[in-house]
Amino acid sequence: MSRFPTIPPQQCTEAQIGVHNDTAQIFSRLPSHIVSKDAEGQLLGPYSPLLYTEDISQTWFALAFAVMRQKRLSVKEKELCILAVLSRYDAPYVHYAHSEIAVRVGFTKVQVQSALHGKLPEELDERESSVYNLSLHLANQRRPMEDSVFEEARKTLGRDEIVGVAHIVSGYIYVAMLTNISNQGVPEAGEDMFQATKNPKL
What we know:
By secondary structure, the chain is an all-alpha fold. The chain contains 9 helices and no strands. Helix 1 packs parallel to helix 3 and helix 4 runs parallel beside helix 7 (126-140). This is Carboxymuconolactone decarboxylase-like domain-containing protein. GO terms for molecular function: peroxiredoxin activity.
């Protein structure tokens, strides 16, 4: 049984309907074969738990959209931030979706696999390498950042871009946590859908 059962549409508040609408908006931009609901219509990933905190959900989506729409980082750089988080956090549904999304934004399967295993992918440009290394450090970070790490990032990234990376990394740690408290299964990847292996160190 689901930890966060689907709320029938006729019982949903305006805010809960908003969760469904905002989720649909996100998935409208993703490859159509990435499944957002299970066979019973249950929202997958972080979205079902959000139905149970309707006083927060609207603000959560507004922040999520703002973080991912920031123009200081490219689409590929944003995805590197997410892959770095997934190399340190075992969030099966997010892993399922972003294995494919990363390929769709232009990474090779080998690059995605390396990034998800916590290794700097080959053939990245200087900025992409800096974004991934900074993201990986932040995903591991449990104390104030050392000056050496900040200055290394500053060789290629502006201060605003460093903060932008921190927004995405922390945002996807949040996504991973919401996903994992629901502990739902993961859809079976179709034969044309890439599914990277998990980091064996997790």
